[in-house]
From TrEMBL:
<keyword id="KW-0863">Zinc-finger</keyword>
<keyword id="KW-0862">Zinc</keyword>
<dbReference type="InterPro" id="IPR007527">
    <property type="entry name" value="Znf_SWIM"/>
</dbReference>
<dbReference type="GO" id="GO:0008270">
    <property type="term" value="F:zinc ion binding"/>
</dbReference>
<keyword id="KW-0479">Metal-binding</keyword>
<protein>
    <submittedName>
        <fullName>SWIM zinc finger family protein</fullName>
    </submittedName>
</protein>
<dbReference type="Pfam" id="PF04434">
    <property type="entry name" value="SWIM"/>
</dbReference>
<feature type="domain" description="SWIM-type">
    <location>
        <begin position="59"/>
        <end position="92"/>
    </location>
</feature>
């Protein structure tokens, strides 16, 4: 089994050299040798790869990682032979599927060797440059180039999506290194868009696979990385100025983005976020915004639009109301949503929070109160954190407390922590009683804080937990009840209420007098005689 893995930059170098120096027939013979398992030991000696390949006899192929033209083989073939090619395919194995790479290389070699008939020198140069993206080409042509670079790439194991993400981010940006700034920035934006489209495609292609759970998680992680990269690329540019300099490219870009983002289909990509994020950056181009608004309204006017797509269009249309300052009009549209998704509106929460516009943050928090009940755990946690941080800038926390109470039991952990933090110990105890939480399930530090404040507040908590344990009617629960009684006795003693303790323990014994095992446990603890 091959253990040697050369660095990715060296593999990229070999890929280019193989494409430039090999004939398709010889390359395919090399793949057949690799496929039949004829490649033996492979070692790295300095900057050379030494491989033993079995043909009529055993040959030694040497691949130079510094200067491929110095590569050689011990066979009698004059030039780059099938044995060197076989060693190359073996080296490629950790990076992908060699059979797919073979097809890509054969296609590239065919293009290189067979230019169209009758073309002049200029045409030949253009044909040669078709293998690289052109600075003045439209975004759709860039995407065709991207697709060609990753033609045949498919998911073959759990980490293939990560491999694709890293490979695309490493290989595609370099083609625009010498371009003018505005075009290069837009090109980088399209690199991110391409990665997101491919990840969505991988997600759709593997949904029925028995490994779909792993692929779905991988897609979600890669999708989040792509979204972060896209934001990083956009933050580097002045979108309004870029649109003025490159209007045709931007018009094509926004049309393309609209096609991707407004389908309303299930996807690991948050297309609505990408769509609204970019349009929010184009505040100086009112006419362009109005044209997009008209297009959205035309789409919304169509009958028999699927509910999910209609919700997507409504959110997109409401976005233009919001960024133009018509928040009330935006909310009127959002009230028409069949299934509002809380995560779709964190874009606004995050914006107003970062801008320290607490009143507007509060407006969105209030609106999200209904849809947040169905949100996933991460979104719910983010919502609670936004609320808590916003509350610090308000005159009173009463509304925050009401919100947490309305979201119980889901908000239990956030609410209970806040009550302790603000030293509302009685409300904290009431919350534990209402949720039937045993003190044995609570942190000792929390109980200690309340005990130091007023030990009497803990009595009902221990009373309730003790009786619940006894009512389970088994020996283990009786032992648990005795543990609780020991702490309860200590609390009564601390409060100097020995008479009240005596009255309570005998009343408890009398109430459960028919439970012989429990009576035995009480006697062992010397609570009764």
């Amino acid at each position: 089994m091959l253990k040697l893995q050369i660095p990715k930059n060296r593999m990229n170098y070999l890929l280019k050299q193989i494409q430039n120096h090999y004939d398709a027939v010889i390359l395919e013979k090399g793949w057949e040798y690799y496929h039949k398992g004829r490649v033996g030991e492979i070692d790295l000696v300095g900057t050379n790869i030494h491989a033993l390949v079995k043909g009529d006899k055993l040959y030694e192929a040497v691949l130079s990682l510094e200067d491929f033209t110095q590569s050689e083989c011990s066979c009698t073939y004059d030039g780059f032979c099938k044995h060197i090619a076989a060693a190359f395919f073996s080296l490629y194995t950790p990076y992908g599927r060699p059979e797919l790479l073979l097809q890509q290389l054969k296609q590239a070699i065919h293009t290189r060797k067979k230019p169209a008939r009758g073309v002049n020198v200029t045409s030949e140069r253009k044909a040669g440059s078709a293998n690289v993206p052109l600075e003045d080409a439209m975004p759709m042509e860039w995407h065709r180039f991207f697709e060609g670079k990753f033609h045949g790439f498919s998911i073959s194991h759990q980490h293939s999506i990560e491999t694709f993400y890293e490979s695309a981010l490493e290989t595609l940006p370099g083609y625009a290194a010498s371009w003018r700034t505005t075009t290069k920035e837009l090109y980088m934006f399209h690199v991110a868009l391409f990665m997101m489209r491919k990840i969505e495609q991988f997600y759709q292609d593997t949904k029925s696979s028995y490994l779909s759970y792993y692929h779905e998680n991988g897609c979600k992680v890669a999708a989040k990385n792509c979204e972060d990269k896209l934001v990083e690329f956009v933050e580097r540019m002045d979108v309004n100025r870029s649109y003025t300099v490159e209007p045709k490219h931007w018009q094509a870009t926004m049309k393309m983005l609209g096609e991707f983002a407004l389908q309303g289909k299930e996807s690991p990509i948050d297309w609505l976020f990408v769509y609204r994020y970019i349009w929010w950056k184009m505040t100086a181009h009112k006419q362009v915004q109005q044209e997009e608004i008209g297009r959205l309204e035309q789409l919304l006017s169509k009958k028999e639009t699927p509910p999910r797509k209609k919700d997507t269009l409504l959110v997109a249309r409401a976005h233009f109301d919001i960024i133009q300052g018509n928040t009330d009009a935006g909310f009127e549209r959002l009230h028409q949503l069949a299934h509002p998704n809380a995560k779709d509106f964190f874009l606004y929460l995050n914006y107003y929070y970062n801008e320290r516009q607490w009143e507007m943050t509060l407006v969105w928090l209030r609106w999200l109160l209904t849809p947040i009940a169905l949100a996933n755990h991460d979104d719910f946690r983010a919502f609670c954190q936004y609320w808590l941080d916003t509350t610090k800038h308000l005159d009173s926390d009463s509304e925050w407390v009401q919100v947490m109470e309305s979201l119980l039991p889901r908000s239990y952990y956030y609410y209970t922590a806040y009550l302790l933090q603000t030293k509302r110990y009685r409300q904290w105890v009431d919350l534990q009683l209402a949720n039937r939480i045993s003190p044995l399930s609570l942190y000792a530090m929390e109980l200690r804080a309340i005990e130091d404040h007023d030990a009497g507040l803990l009595l009902p908590l221990y009373h309730q937990a003790t009786e619940r344990a006894v009512l389970e009617k088994n020996r283990a629960s009786y032992k648990t009840a005795v543990r609780l009684l020991k702490k309860l006795h200590a609390l009564y003693k601390q409060l100097d209420q020995a008479d009240r303790w005596e009255h309570y323990i005998y009343r408890l014994s009398d109430k459960f007098s028919r439970l012989r095992a429990f009576q035995e446990e009480l006697k062992k603890g010397k609570w009764i005689r």
